[in-house]
Amino acid sequence: MTALTLFVEKGYHDTKITDIAEAVPMSTGLLFHYFASKEELLEEVVRMGAEGTKSLGSGRTVPAEVPPDVYLTGFLRQMFLFAGEQRWVFYMFVLMGQVRRNGMPEQARRIADSVDSVGFTAQLIERGQQAGIFREGDSRLLARCFWASVQGIMEEMALDPGMEAPDPAWLVDMLRGSGEAV
To answer: What's 112's domain CATH number?
Structure first.
């Protein structure tokens, strides 16, 4: 988790492999024994993040008797609780967002992009729309906005350890909404 923390706090490009080795602590040579390059280390950290993030969707099904709003609220509640106990989760959200940007190593970007929380959430939103729970509109756009909000909250909580997690129902309420369709 040392590399994760440094990549987020200093930025990937400003973090040197010697910074990571010093912080662990281990010799730079021993670190290179495990990872051939800083890029390879980043890929491994991002791979860990992708595997953790995929627990939302990837082959998972939500039983038909569980309303989508109840599922999403419970999921967020558990995620915020876990992140509160394991602060590195906030950092992982930040890093996964950073890696998706231009200028980051391509393989790490591909790994981060392999996570499709938006697609899974869009399917839940469509179920909620059919049941009259969620507002009408483009389910993928609603899912992207939902996850952008979650991403922003996780980034704020990474920056401010004293920040309390919001009530997950607030975020799910964005999907209910009233007024014009998206």
So the answer is: 1.10.357.10
